[in-house]
C-alpha cells in the first residue's frame, strides 16, 4: 500500500528541489501544485497543512475512494483519471473547483456534484463498467452545473439517451463518442437547448448512420463549428439552412393547398344538399274502382 502523506511529499525529489531553504511546514503552506501521478498510490492521507493547494495530479494510480480533500477549499483542478474510484463523494468543500478529471475509473452513477457551482469541465470517459451497465447522471447534480459547465466528456460509457443533459445550456464542447445513441429526434431536441455549443463528437454511435445525420445537426445547432472532428464551413451551413427552409416552405404550401382543396370540396357538397329521392312504390288502382261493367 502507498498512501499519500506529508512524509511522502517530504521524501519526493521533485518537491525537495522546490523547497529552496524553506522548512517543510513553510514549504507545504506555500505549495499550490502537487504532482503524484503514476506512483501506485491507493489512499490519500491528511494533507490539511497544504491549504493553498490549487492543482492536484493523482492520475494513473490505484485510488479507490476520494477522501481527505475537504481542506482544499482553493483547489481548482483535480486530476484523478485512471484509478479505481467507484463513487464520487467528499467534494462538497471544493467550491472553487473548475476542472474535474475522473475518466477511466469504475463510476456507474455521477452524483455528489451539487455544491460545485463553478465547475466548467467534467471528464468521465471510459468508465470500466460491468457488462450491460451504463453510466447514469444524477439530475440534481446536472441541474447544479447548468450555469457553469462548458465541457462534458462522456465517451464510451454505453449511454443510450441524453435527455437529462438538456439543462446544461452553457455547454460549448460535448463528447459522447462510442456510446449507443440512436434517437435522432431526441438529439435534435437536446441540442436545440445548447446555444453556445461549438464542438461535438458523436462518432461511433448508431445515430451516425442515419440518413442526413450530419446535415440535420448542422442545421439544428447554428453555433456548431466542429462535428465529429470535421470543421463546418459557413457556406455549407448556410446552404443547408436555406435548403431546410425551402423544404419546410414547400411542405407548408402543399399542406395549405391540401387543406384548401378539402375545404372547397366540403363546401360544394354542403351547397348541393341531398339529391332527388326516387320512389319505388307501386301505383295504386283506386282510380278504376268506380268503373262499371
UniProtKB/TrEMBL annotation:
Keyword flag Amino-acid biosynthesis: no
Residues spanning the signal sequence: none
Statement: the UniProt record of this protein carries the keyword Repeat: yes
Top-level taxon: Eukaryota
Stretches for region Disordered: 250-293
Pfam families according to UniProt: LRR_8 (PF13855), LRR_9 (PF14580)
Composition bias, Polar residues: 277-287
Alphabetized UniProt keyword annotations: Leucine-rich repeat, Repeat
Name recorded for this polypeptide: Protein phosphatase 1 regulatory subunit 42
Organism per entry: Zoarces viviparus
Amino acid at each position: 500500500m502507498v498512501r499519500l502523506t506529508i512524509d511522502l511529499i517530504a521524501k519526493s525529489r521533485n518537491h525537495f528541489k522546490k523547497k529552496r531553504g524553506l522548512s517543510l511546514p513553510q514549504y507545504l503552506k506555500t505549495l499550490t501544485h502537487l504532482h503524484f501521478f503514476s506512483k501506485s498510490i491507493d489512499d490519500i492521507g491528511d494533507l490539511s497543512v497544504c491549504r493553498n493547494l490549487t492543482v492536484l495530479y493523482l492520475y494513473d494510480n490505484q485510488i479507490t475512494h476520494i477522501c481527505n480533500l475537504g481542506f482544499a477549499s482553493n483547489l481548482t483542478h483535480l486530476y484523478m483519471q485512471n484509478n479505481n474510484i467507484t463513487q464520487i463523494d467528499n467534494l462538497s468543500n471544493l467550491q472553487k473547483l473548475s476542472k474535474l478529471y475522473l475518466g477511466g475509473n469504475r463510476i456507474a452513477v455521477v452524483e455528489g456534484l451539487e455544491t460545485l457551482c463553478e465547475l466548467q469541465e467534467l471528464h468521465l470517459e471510459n468508465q470500466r463498467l460491468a457488462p450491460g451497465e451504463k453510466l447514469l447522471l444524477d439530475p440534481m447534480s446536472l441541474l447544479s452545473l447548468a450555469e457553469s459547465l462548458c465541457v462534458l466528456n462522456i465517451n464510451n460509457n454505453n449511454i443510450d439517451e441524453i435527455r437529462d443533459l438538456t439543462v446544461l445550456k452553457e455547454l460549448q464542447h460535448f463528447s459522447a463518442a462510442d456510446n449507443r445513441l440512436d434517437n435522432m429526434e431526441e438529439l435534435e431536441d437536446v441540442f436545440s437547448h445548447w446555444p453556445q455549443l461549438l464542438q461535438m463528437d458523436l462518432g461511433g454511435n448508431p445515430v451516425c448512420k442515419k440518413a442526413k445525420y450530419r446535415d440535420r445537426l448542422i442545421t439544428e445547432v447554428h453555433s456548431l463549428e466542429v462535428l465529429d472532428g470535421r470543421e463546418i464551413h459557413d457556406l455549407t451551413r448556410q446552404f443547408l439552412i436555406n435548403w431546410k427552409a425551402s423544404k419546410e416552405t414547400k411542405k407548408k404550401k402543399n399542406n395549405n393547398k391540401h387543406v384548401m382543396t378539402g375545404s372547397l370540396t366540403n363546401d360544394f357538397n354542403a351547397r348541393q344538399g341531398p339529391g332527388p329521392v326516387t320512389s319505388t312504390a307501386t301505383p295504386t288502382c283506386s282510380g278504376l274502382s268506380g268503373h262499371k261493367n
